[in-house]
Amino acid sequence: MSISNGQRGTGPGTLQHLIAHHGWMDIPDRVVTREGHALNTAGDQWRVYLPTGAKTLHFERAQNDLLKWALMRFVLQYTQSVSSMEGFNSYRDVGLNVLSRQQEFGITPNIEPPELRERLRDLMQTIVVEARENRRLWAMYRPVRWYIWCADNIPEVGFCPTYANELDGIPIPGNPKGEAVRANDPEAGPLDRVYELPLLRRVLDDDNSQQWEHLQQKAALALSLAFGRNPANLVWLDEDDLSVELQEVPGLDPFYTLRIPRIKKRQRNPRGDFKVEPLDEPLAKHVQALVEANQQAQAVVQTDEGVVEVERPLFRRRRPQRAVVPIGNADTALRMDSSAMSAMLQRFVERHELVSPLTGEPMVITARRLRYTVATALVAEGISRRELAEFLDHTDTQHVEIYFDLKGEMVKYLDAAAEPHLANLIGFFKGRVVQSDADAVNGDRADKHLSYVNDEDPRDQIAIGVCGESALCNLDPPYSCYLCPKFQPYESADHGHVKECLLASRKTRLQRYENSRLGVQLDDVIMAVSSVISACSEKTAGGRRNG
User: Fold this and answer.
1) What's the CA gap between 235 and 314, in Å, rounded?
2) How far apart are CA 70 and CA 59, in angstroms?
3) pLDDT tens across 381-436, in order?
């Protein structure tokens, strides 16, 4: 890439410093497009071959190299992953709406990232308002996508993740966010909460790897599933933001909370404001494991004023930054950047070779998809607009309307749990089906026999199986039993009736637990019951064949 203005140097705030500091991929001299064509990207003019003919992209129109590089990265991403046409269209629309207004908003060659962030946000706010007034909001589709992508992947260049969330909530015609959520896009929309989300959670629960990189992946996924926050929020977490409070009653799980940096608009210190949220113990254990693994490394940085000790970030860079950093930037030297955080989520999926039960294709996981997933799940469970806006850390409710537009469509997901052959793909049931007490561990202990009692009619009781745990069990029987590997369900029990009762009373149960994400995961239980039904049917069929 040609560097021709005030960002030429290598000092703090310059383009080359940011690329080196965050380990970002720079613009290569040559790439291969999605169509398989070679594209020379060495200079500021790219000659792209489209079905309609050759076009030249003039990136020299961007007066500031930070802005130029961000646009190049986005166009390159789309040219390689979507199509050359979409890459050209993105360049064209950003040029028409953003580059044409550079001078008006003071985006000059020598401004640094903080100034670029403020001026670029003002520019975007203005063109969106003008487009809405002129009924041309559809023209903001690609500029908005560009800004959001940059805020997700390279925010340090001069993009605000909080403002990107506001843009993402605007119902722009053709907006991938709106379309992805409404149509449940298999690669960009929320994960299917019956088949894909439970599969992802089960694999996370079963992952016992202690490799440091794997611990990072698991902690990032656990926090994204719990809170649906942006990578920038996770980047600024420190180890001591996780707190644990031991319960006074023996046998009860510890109570975990997480102090999450808010990173609000016009806030100079990313750790200047926090929200404290409860964290479910099964997810908190992944964060705790990472904290413990991090203790093996020191938190020291070589600065221009000598070696200094810095705060201990939860998510660290793989290797400490080798270059000497200014003392004022010492706190960022060990922190992972936003793009690396997003990449970790997909590496987790690739490591486990996760395939979507719905599409048969490898799962695509991003922080934004998980944010959509968390929001749609909360709406399905009856959360209010104000509560959802508060949970997602929005300043008002207008940005959550898209999720409530879908509320009536979400009921069908739980109905799908009535298909045991599909629920069995998720594998929530990890126990062993038994024919009788004689075939079960602890079958001779009356205190280990488990029964389901219908909350609506206590006279409706079913013996469902035997607990194989020898010690005192601290779970919540009988619902948690279906998720426990020590559960031994009776082959002949009417587990179908249990599932029907759970589905029928789900609304009441959600109201009971709506203010606690630490309660029973009802969807998981229903899926596990369906898996038990399938496992019992298979055992019965196998017995008939052997008989």
Assistant:
1) 8
2) 11
3) 678 888 888 888 877 777 777 777 655 444 444 454 445 555 555 566 888 999 99
CA distance 435 to 308: 65
Average pLDDT, the chain: 82
Please tell me which residue, 514 or 338, carries the higher pLDDT value: 338
Q: Are 273 and 262 in contact (CB under 8 A)?
A: yes
Which are the contacts of 153, defined by CB distance < 8 A and separation ≥ 6?
A: 73, 338, 339, 342
CA distance 1 to 252: 58
Query: Which bin fits 315, alpha (ψ -120 to 50), beta or left (φ > 0)?
Result: beta
Q: What is the mean pLDDT of residues 246-263?
A: 79
Kindly give the interhelix angle for 506-513 and 495-504, rounded to the nearest 10 degrees: 60
Element (DSSP H or E) covering residue 163: helix 161-168
d(CA 431, CA 154): 45
Strands 53-58 and 242-245 turn out to be unpaired
Condensed to tens digits (0 to 9), the pLDDT of residues 24-42 reads 989 999 998 887 777 899 9
Of the pLDDT bands very low, low, confident and very high (cuts 50, 70, 90), residue 474 is low
Pairing mode, strands 306-309 and 300-303: antiparallel
d(CA 253, CA 246): 7
What's the token pair of residue 358?
């719905």
Q: How many helices (H) and strands (E) does the chain have?
A: 20, 12
CA dist., res. 329 & res. 323, Å (int) = 12
- Count of CB atoms within 10 A of residue 386's CB? 12
- Opening angle at CA 168, ends 165 and 171, nearest 5: 140
Strand 45-50 and strand 53-58: pairing? Answer: antiparallel
Residue positions counted in the chain:
547
- DSSP per residue over 74-121, as a string? HHHHHHHHT-HHHHHHHHHHHHHHTGGGTGGGT--TT--HHHHHHHHH
Tokens found for residue 241: 């933001």
For residues 259 and 245, give the distance between their C-alpha atoms in angstroms, rounded to a whole number.
Answer: 14
Q: Which spans in 207-280 are helix H?
A: 212-227, 231-235
> Would you tell me the crossing angle of helices 141-153 and 113-133 to the nearest 10 degrees?
150
Return d(Cα 10, Cα 120) in angstroms, integer: 23
